[in-house]
Amino acid sequence: MEAGQVIVEGNKLAIGYAGKQSRTVHRDLNFRLCCGEFTCLLGANGSGKSTLLRTLAAAQPPLSGSLTLFGKPVSAYDPKERSRLIGLVLTDKTQTGGLSVYDLVSLGRQPHTGFFGRLSTHDKEAVSRSLEAVGMLHKADSYMAQLSDGERQKVMIAKALVQECPLILLDEPTAFLDVVSRIEIMTLLHRIAATEQKAVLMSTHDVEQALVLADRLWLMTGRYGLECGCTEDLILANRMDSLFEFQPDIRFDLMHGGFSPEVKGKKFIVLETADEVLRHWTQNALNRHDYFCLMPGQQTEFHGLPVLKVISPDQILLEANGTEICCSSFENLFHVLSCRS
Ligand SMILES: Nc1ncnc2c1ncn2[C@@H]1O[C@H](COP(=O)(O)OP(=O)(O)OP(=O)(O)O)[C@@H](O)[C@H]1O
Which residues form the ABC transporter domain (predicted)? Predict the structure, then answer.
């Protein structure tokens, strides 16, 4: 497999549900997934991420348009062929508690084993390699029921790895995990894509980590459908704000790469500090206390505004009404400010 080789391509794809409760979730989706790339699919609740992943995995048919895997319609592959090409990791807690970690991952070899599913030496090596790749080899003999959520998720990823598929799809694999496990899993997926030349696509609500680790983003919204691009191209073209289009009070913070409530401070204060970290956290605290921060020089149209000079976290000078008060902490500062208002 060569870096950049197209594995999956969708053209004018419509996804959704046919039958009694028929519903088109999206139409006109155009995308490609290539070897060696880790892609994160972001979108608000109900925007259609799982529907798209299920369609890509052929767990539900497209409503119209074209969806190809290595240039051939996904529907033209039989289920066994597909399971050699697509590894799917779902979040729902499957009933696997009675299986050992080793046995569960071994099930991922089924597309390669014969009728009786006996593991060859090569299969056993592949199981051990996959468990090692996700850092779970030491738990090979544990039962699934004995694992934490994060560990279980790593084992499910090992099961997808052992299938040796060029395409791995994961639906919110980091849901319910602590920040360390989330970072571990996303770093692992990024490494797998890069070193094993796989295309890895995961849906997630973990925007912060996605912006750090994803080579590409797929942004899914009702208004714009699916916007695909290199992570930094989308961020710097201000496309992140489109994710929550009906929430004008929530803004993407370009500087720090996360979403936060828009600042609507009613009180004004001039903030002076030479340190970027101090500026960020002082502004954070002031915004929460209903202050809108102006930079020095910005206050020409306002007169007599308080000025805050932050030299260090324990040296905060507040100049107001011709007096200067030195505060030794933010707690102290907000006590002084609350007494003034
Ligand atoms: N079986 C179904 N039949 C009809 N509509 C469905 C079905 N499953 C989901 N939907 C609808 O399709 C839309 C997209 O749902 P989907 O689960 O794909 O969103 P999502 O982006 O994965 O959401 P979340 O972030 O909450 O997991 C929703 O409006 C949902 O109500």
Answer: 8-247
